[in-house]
Amino acid sequence: MSAFQAAAGPDREVEHxxxxxxxxxxxLVSKRIIVGYGFWIFLLSDIIMFSAFFATYAVxxxxxxxxxxxxxxxxxHDTAVETACLLLSSFTCGLASxxxxxxxxxxxxxxxxxxxxxxxxxxxxxxxxFASLVARGAGPTRSAFLSAFFTLVGCHGLHVTAGLLWLxxxxxxxxxKGYRPDILRRVLCFSLFWHTLDIIxxxxxxxxxxxxxxx
Amino acid sequence: MSHAEDTEDRHHRDTVPxxxxxxxxxxxxxxxxxxxxxxxxTLLTVVSxxxxxxxxxxxPSIPVALGVLAIAQMGVHLTFFLHITTGPDNVNNVMALAxxxxxxxxxxxxxxxxxxxxxxxxxxxxxIMQMQR
Lengths: 215, 133
Fold this sequence. Notes:
Chain A is mostly helical. Chain A has helices at about 5, 15-25, 30-60, 70-75, 75-100, 105-135, 145-175, 180-215. Chain A is elongated. In chain B, about 70% of the residues lie in helices and about 0% in strands. Chain B has helices spanning about 5-10, 25-50, 60-80, 90-120, 125-130. In chain B, helix 2 packs antiparallel against helix 3 (about 60-80). The longest helix of chain B has about 30 residues, at about 90-120. Chains A and B meet through helix 1, helix 3, helix 5 and helix 8 of A and helix 1, helix 2, helix 3 and helix 4 of B.
């Protein structure tokens, strides 16, 4: 049952058409549901894009061109700290969305600040890891495996960086404009985005780091 | 209950991803869901990291176990963080998710299948070199 069918009676043609008219005017189905659903579709398309990078990585993981393999490069302690940062930030982001809905400034700003700090920690470790790989001569140009690795992990890192900028924007907008419905819709979309990044990271640390370290 | 009330009521039960039912003093319940999610996700992550380095289990089973743990953890995230449920108010979101999962599976399994076939059917590199002499 779709949101639109839900709003329209199954056996009432006339009422149905009236409802369609009200939909067009932003009537029965709340804008929050439409915005959230549309953003959910976008997130799924983003996940599909990531799955293409995952497929590329899985195909190329053995093509090291005589260079280092994953098990010689990855430091699982770093990965564990990164995972903890992102998981905790996903949790605090959830707290922030509750705070926003409750119009509670202390909760919202505090949880958003914690999310930001944890996200910056994640990015810092990742940048450090990339720099040390390049310094060891294992940059993206070394082998097909490393090209795929930098593309996949780097793309996730870019998403997190964009998410951090979005986070700051949301804090500024709530600060400047208050808990208006349109601002709250943006906060909803941001929290969906941030949770999705954590889901992608689960696939990433499993496929790239844990399976790579075992090979 | 008249039809109008019925449809109005059903409309109110539609939800979006990431939105749990919060009315009034239900904050504690909302936080509780996130806490359960955090606990389960932490548990699954710790088990993943432990299993990847262990010699307690048969080696070739480790990647399979890691895959199962990862999928379980994604399920935990979807349920407790994104609030995707099996309830009637969530059918839209679940259908979109199911379609996304279908495409992801086609992409990944299809790519691996084709490339493994290709590798299997290709002559080893040293043999090609010998033919070129």
